[in-house]
Structure formats: structure tokens, C-alpha cells
From TrEMBL:
This is Sugar kinase. Belongs to the ROK (NagC/XylR) family. GO terms for molecular function: kinase activity. It comes from the Bacteria. Keywords: Kinase, Transferase. Coiled coil: none annotated. The lineage of its organism: Bacteria, Bacillati, Actinomycetota, Actinomycetes, Pseudonocardiales.
Length: 291
């Protein structure tokens, strides 16, 4: 009973491990996420294999994308995984025979950065992974803030005064439309490149510089609004785009400082835990069931 099983379920890959109380991960493994109607069976089979290998784990933690009702253990909606109002916690607990914690993948990442990473010891911060999309976890008073309907932190769909491009959510001018990794590739116009390629070209390619500059401006607007509303001590940038390091973070800091003129802006730093954050956060939630 000295370990838990943790899975971070993404649209393409599931990342799993057996995790000890100090955060040490063993039996680390990745498997492809199965398509519907086999998605849940794939998750449970992966969790069962890890559980068997762990001997007698104390609990299982599952981090999934979309809209998650953590209190009821229901995966309410995920467009990528194709489910709606799925009682995943109870299904998994019945199959695995151990307590199961269900959490949102981005919230799990924020929990992990708070416990073991860049936000350790900080009670008020924003964890902002920037990947295919943009979502955030708001920490206030040392706890993740969920909001009235569990959807706090959806800063990717905050409007920014950059333009009126359509967003997949149905709105126009969302932050995600200009500043996500997918947006950088789309707006640059070469689907053969990655977002990292676009960022790397910005020093010598005017079109790449324009696309990156507008992404930075969009982030500056959104993070200024967040700062004025919630007064964070720290903003932690994660996700694939954070791999650009100071090429992204330095101009974001400058943009935020230029807009927050009458107070000290929050620090903006890179996440420390990388792709392991969601899995580690799922483990922390699982430990919360038995501690």
C-alpha cells in the first residue's frame, strides 16, 4: 500500500506509472489511446496492468481532458475522446477493485507543479499549458479553484483584441485562436512545420515574427486581465510551446510588464515537470483518497 497507479489520458497517448508518495514513478509506460467505442476499455486495461504490476496499490488516479465533475466522478464531456456524462470513476473502481480519483488533466498538472514543481510553496498562481489548445488551472489560497460549474481556468476562450478569427468553440477572437501551438502553425500557413519551427523562424522570417508577435500580444492581454482580477504571485507556462523557453517567455514578460504599469507584475516562469505533470497530479489526487 505504498504506491498508487496514475494515468494521464490524452487524445493520442495515455501515460501511466506506479507512483510512490515522494513522487517517484516506476513502471512508466505509454500506450496509444484507443478510439471509440474502445476508449474506456483501453484505459481500464492499462490501469489493470499497472495495478497488477504494483501488487496492492492504495488507489488509482485518472486524469482526463474535457469537462470533469470531480465530486461525482463523471467525465461530462470530451470532444476528442467522444464521451458525455460518463461515470468513469465508478466504472474504474468496480473493474479495478480499489478507490479511484478522477480529475481534469490540466488541473492535475497544476496540482503537480504546486506540489513538486515550479509553483512549490506558492498559493496563488496560474498554470497555463500551451499546446494544441490553451487551458489553465487557477490556484487561489493554495487550492485549485473550480468555479460554479467546474470550468474555471478556461482562459483559452477569453477574447483578446487581436482580431475576429473564428474559434472551434463557436466564439470569435479567443486567445487560443492566436496563441496556441496549433494556431501558430495554422496562421503561419505551412502545415508541414511544428509550432517550434515557427518560433525558431521568427528571428529571420517576417511572417513567423508577425505570427509569434501576435501570439505574445494575445497572451499579454489575457494575462493582464487575469492579473488584475486574481492578483497571482506567479504564472507557470507549460505545454509543448513552453519548450521554446526564453524565446517565448521573455517577450511575454515584457508584454505583461508594459500593460501592468502601476504595480509589480507576477513572475512568469516555465513549468518544471513537463509531460509528467498530468500523471503526477493524478497520483496526488489518488493519494488524497487514502491519506
Amino acid at each position: 500500500m505504498n504506491s498508487v497507479v496514475a494515468l494521464d489520458v490524452g487524445g493520442t497517448l495515455m501515460k501511466g506509472a506506479v507512483v510512490d508518495r515522494d513522487g517517484t514513478a516506476r513502471a512508466v509506460e505509454q500506450r496509444p489511446t484507443r478510439r471509440q467505442p474502445d476508449t474506456v476499455d483501453g484505459i481500464l486495461a492499462f490501469a489493470a496492468d499497472l495495478t497488477a504490476g504494483a501488487g496492492s496499490p492504495a488507489a488509482v488516479g485518472l486524469a482526463v481532458p474535457g469537462i470533469v465533475d470531480e465530486a461525482r466522478g463523471v467525465a461530462r464531456y470530451s470532444s476528442n475522446l467522444g464521451w458525455r456524462d460518463l461515470p468513469l470513476r465508478d466504472i474504474a473502481a468496480d473493474r479495478l477493485g480499489v478507490p479511484v480519483a478522477l480529475t481534469h488533466d490540466v488541473r492535475a498538472g497544476g496540482v503537480a507543479e504546486h506540489e513538486f514543481g515550479a509553483a512549490r510553496g506558492i498559493d496563488d498562481f496560474l498554470f497555463l499549458p500551451i499546446g494544441t489548445g490553451i487551458a489553465g488551472t487557477v490556484f487561489a489560497g493554495g487550492r485549485p479553484y473550480r468555479g460554479a460549474d467546474g470550468m474555471a481556468g478556461e482562459i483559452g476562450h477569453a477574447p483578446v483584441p487581436i482580431g475576429e478569427e473564428s474559434c472551434a468553440c463557436g466564439q470569435r477572437g479567443c486567445l487560443e485562436t492566436y496563441a496556441s501551438a496549433a494556431a501558430l502553425v495554422r496562421r503561419y500557413g505551412d502545415p508541414g512545420l511544428s509550432a517550434a519551427d515557427v518560433v525558431a523562424r521568427a528571428e529571420h522570417d517576417p511572417r513567423a515574427a508577425q505570427v509569434l508577435g501576435e501570439a505574445v500580444r494575445a497572451l499579454g492581454f489575457a494575462l493582464t486581465t487575469y492579473t488584475m482580477l486574481l492578483d497571482p504571485a506567479l504564472i507557470v507556462i507549460g505545454g509543448g510551446l513552453a519548450d521554446a523557453g526564453e524565446t517565448l517567455l521573455a517577450p511575454v514578460r515584457a508584454e505583461l510588464s508594459a500593460r501592468v504599469t502601476w504595480r509589480v507584475p507576477p513572475r512568469v516562469v516555465r513549468a518544471q515537470l513537463g509531460s509528467s505533470a498530468g500523471r503526477l497530479g493524478a497520483a496526488i489526487c489518488a493519494w488524497g483518497l487514502v491519506s
